[in-house]
Please model this.
Amino acid sequence: MNIDIGKTLDDGPYTMMQKFVVCLAALSIVMDGFDGQLIGFAIPTLIKEWGISRSAFAPAVAAGLIGMGIGSACAGLFADRFGRRWAVIGSVFIFGTATCAIGLAPDVTTIAILRLIAGFGIGGALPSSTTMTAEFTPARRRTLAVTATIVCVPLGGMLAGLFSSVVLPLYGWRGLFFIGGALPLGLVVLLFFTLPESPRYLARRRHRWPELSKLLGRMSRPTAAGAVFTDLGEQKKEQRVGFRALFDEGRGRDTLAIWCAFFMCLLAVYSAFSWLPTMLAAEGLSTQIAGSGLTAYNLGGVIGALACAVAITRFGSRWPLIVCCAGGAASALLLLGVDVSHSTGLFIFGIGVHGMFVNAVQSTMYALCAFVYPTAVRATGTASALAFGRIGAILSAFAGAVVITAAGASGYLIMLGVAMVFVLIALVMVKGHIPRLLRTKTEAKIEVQA
Model:
């Protein structure tokens, strides 16, 4: 008996067991965003305690971003070779352990080294968890599920802010990292005992078919003894598994376009994460109001990402992504006409709208990766795109400072707008966009009658 694992997963029910796995993957991303943001909240306390300048922490911040880039690139290769399960567990273990160790750091150099190590895990968790989500979710729900997983990054960052406001006054920055690192380590234990391997990954390894049969049974898809598993929808005569396969079977153009889109979009996103409060403070706003700008940006991003995911499920990915790119560029450039000091509320609202469009693009591009790349190289494709994006993020640490110093708020907004224009051009070049997957009952009846 031959069983097409892709058809079995895509056409079958979306069971509670599958939803539980997606929740575990999402929780891993929450911890990813949580630990990734802790250093930003600790820096003011460290400056005061150690009597050093803010610029002294630049190597520590940069080291974390570099580690994320390396982790993003390596995690995909690891996941495609050794399994998605161990990639997720290993990534969370790495950044949890390194974050705990920062609580023992005696100087900035040690923090930089530990942030580099933590970055390996933080960068690796995102592509591994999104791949796990994609491969446990039926096609009709995949875009929304993957996007909801990615949205957990800003949610984790918001939780880190609330957590820091409580823990820092009570236990100081060392307690912040001790407790902040212990939380993901507790998640590692949960993942070890409850997270299964991806069924698509198991289907490609004959010696693990008995494990796959048991897993499908837990997913309300019982199989007969001695069943033979295939993945017909994704077997496209692949001769190589790994980085080179990203350019096989006509995928080269889409790979390069997606890399460019990730690079420019993460440049825009991390320019906001790193420099938006600084830009607003430079315009004369108080620290509290300046911080609310980043909060509005993140909240808008959560709303935009989920809305774009629904639109992609309904209409496919090409036009929703193009519209959001255009909205991201236009919203940044329109803010050039708003006086920050006299129309602060309007400006903050505009920042939220900009964050809605930009994060909608960034979050749903992971779903695009999950569609463009077949099972054998899906994690590698997603991870390589994110690795290029991390280069853009690293560049933002320098570009934001230079632009704000040289041209102020106007130059900063122009940079954000131009970056989204380049993202738009790159996504227009992608040939393998997600098609429309959902049909209404009326449309289905009409098609059957025809």
Remarks:
- Strands lie at 2-4, 228-230.
- The two ends are 33 Å apart (CA to CA).
